[in-house]
Amino acid sequence: MSGIDDLPPLREVIKTHDLAAKKSLGQNFLLDLNLTAKIARLAGDLTQADVLEVGPGPGGLTRGLLAEGARRVLAIEKDPRCMPALAEIAAAYPGRLTAINGDALDTNPLAHLTPPIKIAANLPYNVGTELLVRWLTPPDWPPFWDSLTLMFQREVAQRIVATPGSKAYGRLALLAQWRTDARIVMELPPEAFSPPPKVNSAVVHLTALPAPRFPANPATLNSVVAAAFNQRRKMLRSALKSVSPAIEDHLHAAGIKPTERAEQVPLEAFCALSRSLDES
Ligand code: SAM
Questions:
Q1: Which CATH architecture best describes the domain 10-208?
Q2: Residue 213 C-alpha to ligand 1 middle, in angstroms?
Q3: How far is the CA of 217 from the centre of ligand 1 (A)?
Q4: pLDDT tens column, 154-173
Q5: For ligand 1, atom 14, which residue shows the shortest CA distance?
Q6: Does position 152 have pLDDT exceeding 80, yes or no?
Q7: Ligand 1 centre from 112 Cα, in Å?
Q8: Which CATH number among 3.40.50.300, 1.10.8.100, 3.40.50.2300, 1.10.150.390 corresponds to the domain 218-279?
Q9: What is the pTM (predicted TM-score) of this model?
Q10: pLDDT at position 58, please?
Q11: What is the DSSP string of the chain?
Q12: Which of 78, 100, 132 gets mutated to test ligand 1 (max ligand atoms within 8 A of its CB)?
């Protein structure tokens, strides 16, 4: 018995279904069900929510989410070898788990989910960052999800929650913090995974704000922030020259010194700069 359900321990599941980890799919599995239950709890109260889980693998976090009472879990997994293990979990939680064999980058989950929706994932880091950017930039806000609970390489997690003046502060921090509350809620050493990755990991919890923290047009804000951080060592008056010939006036209007560098400028000032540019 595994402790959180009547299913076999994950090491046994991996053996039975021959799930030797594949590097090409970024497979570093969490096998400690106490840990996966803890991560599931970090996603908040699941009893009234549907959960989208991306990259369930042998199902450690899936089992945590279900044991924590998720109303329904939709799990999207690219590796077909994992499907029999996920089918066993579905049988143990009748009607509550749907597992789809597919690439999360090409699969629309919405047909299977009813709001409120929470997203939880322990994904390969490149896929995780790409999905995070997509989830943070939907055509309309608020998005289809209420919260994201995602495992990242610790360095990426630090970039998401970074504040002005730090090296980690950049586009990802601004993108995340403009429309969510983002916090690092857990740190994990390499030994927590099998096989252990080379780096430390961290879980980030992001809660969608009902509206952006400060008003701004998303496209303008995105292009200003991209230009500012593409040349992060330059003063803003030259880094942003291509954005507008009158950039110094706009910087003054937004309360930003033209000699400042992007990494010193808070989100509120980037939003004010975007509004000033749009008004002209
Ligand atoms: N969630 C499991 C756990 O915590 O043990 C597995 C984590 S492992 C880091 C990442 C999982 O994502 C693997 O099972 C891998 O096959 C799957 N995966 C990789 N790329 C994916 C993609 N594009 N779409 C869906 N799943 C993917």
A1: 3-Layer(aba) Sandwich (3.40)
A2: 32
A3: 34
A4: 999 999 999 999 999 999 99
A5: 57
A6: yes
A7: 19
A8: 1.10.8.100
A9: 0.96
A10: 98
A11: --SSSSSPPHHHHHHHTT-PPPGGGT--EE--HHHHHHHHHHT---TT-EEEEE--TTSHHHHHHHHTT-SEEEEEES-GGGHHHHHHHHHHSTTTEEEEES-TTT---GGG--SSEEEEEE--HHHHHHHHHHHHS-SSSS-S-SEEEEEEEHHHHHHHH--TTSTT-SHHHHHHHHHEEEEEEEEE-GGGEES--SS-EEEEEEEE-SS-SS---HHHHHHHHHHHHHTTTSBHHHHTTTT-TTHHHHHHHTT--TT-BGGG--HHHHHHHHHHHHH-
A12: 78
| pLDDT > 70: percent of the chain | 99
Is residue 125 over pLDDT 90?
Answer: no
Res. 261 pLDDT band, cuts 50 70 90: very high
- Ligand 1: which atom is nearest the Cα of residue 79? 16
Domain ranges of the chain: 10-208, 218-279
Q: Ligand 1: which residues within 6 Å by Cβ? A: 25-30, 54-57, 60-61, 76-79, 82, 103-105, 122-124, 127
Mean local confidence (pLDDT), 187-206? 97
Which residue has a Cα nearest atom 23 of ligand 1?
103
